[in-house]
Specification:
Structural class: mainly alpha
Helix content: 55-70%
Radius of gyration: 17 Å
Strand content: 5-15%
Shape: globular
Largest sheet: 3 strands, parallel
Strand order of the largest sheet: 1-2-3
Order of helices and strands: HHHEHEHEH
Low-confidence stretches: none
Number of helices: 6
Number of domains: 1
Number of strands: 3
Distance between the termini: 42 Å
């Protein structure tokens, strides 16, 4: 496996940090400022996925939060390994396969799990009133 592909999928925080550090300073400051504003007053980032390939987008969101936290604290990535659930609320996921549903529940703890995207509309409206 090429090094870039390995880094992207096995160590996404390191790949994100390298890309982040290649940005202009004003963009870095804006990203860090937004992250600090989001996390400093106890608010949480709300996140949901629908048929997401077993939560690949969620893994990237978690990696971004860990990388930004490391940058904000000016520490190495290993020192900044915080629980992403502290700042990200996984509101819901949608997955039709039972085994994948169980895996998603075990690793990401979504508040709601839907089994079919075709029936999500009315159920989501009713369920979200309880959770958000």
């Amino acid at each position: 496996m090429p090094a870039v592909v390995y880094e992207l999928f096995e160590q996404p925080e390191r790949w994100l940090r390298r890309k982040f550090r290649s940005m202009e300073c004003k963009h870095q400051r804006a990203a860090l400022g937004n992250f600090q504003n989001l996390t400093s007053d106890g608010r949480k980032y709300k996140w949901a996925t629908v048929c997401s390939g077993s939560e690949c987008p969620t893994l990237w969101v978690y990696a971004q939060f860990r990388m930004l936290r490391a940058e904000l604290l000016e520490v190495d990535l290993d020192s900044a390994q915080a629980d992403p659930h502290a700042v990200v609320v996984h509101v819901f996921s949608c997955e039709i396969e039972k085994a994948k549903q169980e895996w998603i529940h075990r690793h990401f703890r979504p508040l709601l799990m839907f089994s079919d995207v075709c029936t999500i509309g009315p159920l989501l409206t009713l369920s979200l009133r309880k959770h958000i």
